[in-house]
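Shapes recur. Our protein:

. . .
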Amino acid sequence: MKKIVLIEDESSVVSFIKKGLQELGYEISVALDGSTGIKLVEENSFDIIILDIMLPDINGLEVCKEIRKKNKTVPILFLTALDSSENIVLGLESGGDDYLVKPFKFIELVARIKSLLRRSGHHNGPETTEIDNENIYQFSDLTVNDYTKKVTRAGIEVSLTSTEYKLLLYFLNNPEKVISRAEILEAVWGVNYELGTNVVDVYVNYLRKKLDNQEDDKIIHTVIGMGYVLKKP
């Protein structure tokens, strides 16, 4: 049973989400403010966090940052009543993996949850130990096992957040291709228009710091004025 924590102060929204997800078989914990939410996440293991941006004590963005200090991988889905580019960008840059604008349909929420669970390696179907070549990505001295979500470079394991992992996987599925920031933003964050954000540059830099040991070992290269490309050193 997948465990979800909902950090939300609106009673009507809590009731709506909790009832619907429990009926689908999810285990739901609720925090009505940011401080309680942070404590719950620190003391328990959850498969996904649903986090409202507007909370009575601590802003949801700050809650996200606090959670990310200790937990880099748990997927975080932001709920926001403000459908603005700035609000969405702030959520993504604070460590969120996805966002949903209020009001939303329950089916939309479920779709986002399932998508985030897939990204993070949680499977909704029966468990299997079968692995085939489609699960393994090999590029230069970089190896990614998409079944176990294990990433190694030159034999050394690299720990990535769920968003960093999805970004790397997108590069691996498009080797040697120059990819624009807009394409990356849409593929990795599901944003289908230009927000004027540097979130792509920020996360590419995160990846580089974790994957590149020396200057001449770079595999993610900047193409000035065009975007990025994954190519061998």
